[in-house]
Specification:
- The complex is a heterodimer of chains A (452) and B (308).
- Chain A is built from four helices and 22 strands.
- Helices cover 6% and strands 47% of the residues of chain A.
- In chain A, strand 12 and strand 13 form a beta hairpin.
- Chain A is mainly beta and 452 residues long.
- In chain B, the strands form four sheets. Chain B has a six-stranded mixed beta sheet with strand order 2-7-6-9-10-4, with no helix packed on it.
- Chain B contains one helix and 19 strands.
- Chain B is elongated, with a radius of gyration of 25 Å.
- Classes of the chains: A mainly beta (452), B mainly beta (308).
- At the A-B interface, strand 19 and strand 20 of A face helix 1, strand 6 and strand 7 of B.
């Protein structure tokens, strides 16, 4: 896609012409580094101040955008949960605002992206910070690099949906499964990747604690999470592009031990009269520290996308399926050490978006997540197989204010105004029979996205 | 294709789902149970409708302290029951349903149930006896006969159990201080002898050889002591018997620790019990900011003087 770049220079110098360098990516324009021609300089006998600034800044590009939401949920309550978490979900929110600076020379690249949001209160944090080296494709200097290596904070290269930039995604948020497996996608690690013709490959060794997890940004486990992705991005026809891939992940989870405790006296109000009787006082001796324990987690997935350009606009069909074991780090957090058994998860989605000229978009996504394929429920003292699955049906409609080119020649708009309703069918409540039933937690979101 | 589309539309449109509510507005909250708005299903007690039925219930103590948590209501239901529902008949807006548990080894063919319940502190503003009904529901969703018992909600102002047991004598007077935020506020009174009574020194007259003078006031608790939330945010100075007429107490409120909060609004009220129930009298209100926190270094803010 064409990269917006005039912002940075505009702050420094008003009149610098800025050569466009095309970047194309099968997944996300944010991350995949491509080779880029060296900066051009004007052939003048006496270099001017303008020439000097241009030569310094020309390897840089800047992208910035913001997403502000108006959100509502049937599950919203004007209450606080035990621990103080607010339960009101009917609110305005800054979903994300990001500024990203890319630098790309012939063999060296880097990216610095900072995000601000108010999801859990005002936050500013590093989102993508990495640098590395790459080998340009001599036949296609503007295309993906033959091979590259990056070190730093980058998106976990698993599947399609996770690394997909929210700037480009039409739907408001990632699917439930994706948010369960990767509460935040960026993680620290080493990434080796490249492209050969239509094929894409990627290996990464990461801390295994992406953003928004308990130990985000740090690593409680020395073993690294290994992520692999093999994919393709083929232009079957001028108007048809097909891409896809398979991914795998293997790592180790961390069950923290307990620190030692002191002697304590516990009062247990056995007769519930609110008064202390001697028999209700129990002394508990000091407890020793308990060791931490590790457990294995893994996941495999497959994804496919098809984009068809018609007279009406771009049609995009995408689907992805992921299975995992002890992978849930965000919704029903898996801890086989505590539970005594491994938890198997299954996630899948299918999404269709239809751009209508350059002014509008319609979309629909079906999202399925089962956090525990082996769930049981207790009824009349008997354990019987049960369901914990969550299905979400998400129709979407949006208006686009054209102005910024996105993937290929698709217009993503200078601004977007989107509306999405999520029909959520789950098993989080209990019916009058005492069995798991659907909870009334449908949600809707109106989003304004503006390129800065 | 049409069938799949129809299924999708049905799945999206037909089921609005059960409400998510913590039930914090309800007088009773049952752990691991679902809240359902509306009346409890089932026939009135002893209607003889047959089917699923509650065969027994056990309550350790029918008296509910203000804001009491983890109070167990246990029982059994017959073999037709798959779940049990319960609610206050005259309080709240809905009922709670929970599945029955294991078969009771001592009563073959009957299944246990246990409703571990928390009680809304605000329900203490409706003190007295309140009927609770429990009903068993069978696998077809049909509820049987309701079973009724009574719980007594003790009042917010301590009354020595007089509300729930009229044979008991209420206190002569209570000076109550309450506040609205999780901060450590202490009630303090200074008696005619100059003694400061607060949570650290909780009696207006020091015990003599371990025996407390019946005219001594006693502070009932150190609410939010060390900033540990107790959901009460109230301290009471309780006089079992009135001191001699003419005795004057100066009443103070002191912000011991702001506990990281910006401050709190507070109100102090004197309660008497002319007919056994608390009646509010002299009162004062105010606001603390976090800058008022003094760690007990002073008396705090003077509110009023009360004369017996």
């Amino acid at each position: 896609m064409n990269v917006t770049r005039a912002r940075l220079i505009g702050l420094v110098l008003a009149a610098v012409s800025w050569p466009n360098a095309a970047r194309a990516s099968d997944v996300d324009d944010d991350l995949v580094v491509e080779s880029k021609p060296a900066a051009t300089t004007k052939a003048t006998a006496t270099p001017t101040k303008t020439d000097w600034l241009e030569s310094v800044l020309s390897p840089l590009s800047v992208v910035a955008f913001m997403q502000t939401d108006m959100h509502g949920s049937a599950a919203s309550e004007d209450e606080i949960q035990q621990g103080g978490a607010l339960l009101n979900e009917d609110r305005f929110a800054l979903k994300t605002a990001r500024v990203r600076v890319d630098a790309s020379w012939t063999y060296v690249h880097g990216q610095l992206e900072v995000e601000a949001n108010t999801t859990k209160g005002p936050t500013i944090r590093p989102y993508h910070v990495f640098g590395g080296f790459h080998v340009p494709n001599p036949k296609d200097p503007n295309g993906p690099a033959l091979a590259a290596a990056s070190l730093g904070l980058f998106d976990t290269p698993f599947g399609y949906e996770g690394p997909e930039s929210p700037r480009l995604r039409w739907f408001m948020d990632r699917t439930t499964a994706s948010k369960a497996f990767f509460p935040g996608v960026p993680d620290l690690g080493l990434w080796v990747y490249g492209a050969l013709g239509p094929f894409r490959w990627s290996f990464a060794a990461m801390n295994g604690e992406p953003l928004d997890t308990t130990y985000q940004g740090i690593a409680p486990v020395s073993a690294k999470q290994v992520v692999m992705h093999f994919g393709f991005d083929a232009h079957a026809r001028d108007d048809l592009e097909i891409s896809g891939g398979i991914s795998s992940l293997r790592g180790r989870g961390f069950h923290p031990g307990a620190t030692s405790g002191k002697n304590v006296i516990t009062w247990n109000d056995i007769n519930e009269d609110g008064a202390i009787q001697p028999a209700e006082l129990v002394g508990q001796s000091a407890t020793a520290s308990a060791p931490s324990q590790l457990f294995d987690r893994w996941s495999i997935g497959a994804d496919i996308q098809a984009r068809l350009k018609t007279k009406l606009g771009m049609s995009t069909l995408s689907a992805e399926m992921t299975i995992g074991q002890n992978m849930d780090r965000g919704v029903y957090i898996a801890d086989p050490v505590f539970l005594g058994l491994d938890t198997r998860e299954l996630g899948a989605y299918a999404a269709l978006t239809q751009e209508i000229t350059k002014w509008a978009v319609l979309g629909f996504r079906f999202d399925y997540y089962d956090p525990n394929l082996d769930a049981f429920d207790k009824r009349a003292g008997t354990l019987i197989p049960s369901q914990q699955s969550i299905m979400t049906f998400s129709p979407l409609v949006g208006f686009v204010f054209p102005g910024v080119l996105g993937h290929g020649d698709r217009a993503y708009g200078k601004a977007r105004l989107l509306f999405q309703y999520d029909f959520i069918r789950d098993h989080l409540a209990r019916s009058t029979l005492g069995i798991p039933a659907d909870l009334g937690n449908d949600a809707w979101t109106v989003r304004l996205q503006v390129e800065l | 294709m049409k069938r799949a589309l129809a299924l999708v539309v049905l799945a999206m449109a037909c089921d609005r789902g059960l409400p998510r509510t913590l039930g914090l507005d309800e007088p009773i909250r049952v752990h691991l149970a679902q809240f359902i708005p509306g009346d409890l299903p089932g026939a009135p007690p002893d209607a003889g409708s047959g089917g699923a039925s509650v065969t027994a219930f056990v309550i350790a103590d029918p008296i509910v302290l203000p804001g009491q948590a983890n109070k167990s209501i246990n029982g059994r239901a017959n073999k037709d029951a798959v779940s049990v529902g319960l609610r206050f008949t005259d309080l709240g807006s809905g009922w709670w349903v929970l599945p029955v548990g294991t078969e009771d080894a001592q009563f073959p063919g009957e299944f246990t149930w246990q409703a571990v319940s928390d009680f809304n502190p605000l329900s203490a503003h409706a003190p007295g006896n309140h009927p609770v009904r429990v009903v068993a529901i069978d696998a077809n969703g049909k509820a049987g006969d309701e079973v009724e018992f009574t719980l007594c909600l003790e009042p917010w102002i301590p009354d020595f159990g007089a509300t729930c047991n009229p044979a008991k004598t209420p206190p002569a007077l209570v000076i109550s201080l309450s506040w609205d935020s999780p901060v450590d506020v202490d009630l303090g009174v200074i008696g005619p002898d100059g003694k400061l009574t607060n949570a650290k020194s909780p009696t207006t007259i020091a015990p003599d050889a371990g025996v407390l003078d019946p005219t001594s006031g006693v502070i009932d608790r150190d609410s939010l002591g060390t900033c540990v939330e107790d959901s009460l945010r109230q301290e009471d100075l309780v006089f079992k018997q009135a001191p001699p007429t003419g005795t004057v107490f100066d009443v103070y409120a002191n912000l011991f620790d702001a506990c990281g909060q910006r401050g709190a609004a507070y109100v102090a009220t004197v309660y008497t019990f002319p007919n056994g129930a608390p009646v509010a009298g002299q009162s004062a209100k105010g606001i603390f900011t976090s800058y008022d926190a003094n760690g007990g270094a002073g008396f705090g803010t003077y509110l009023f003087s009360y004369t017996f």
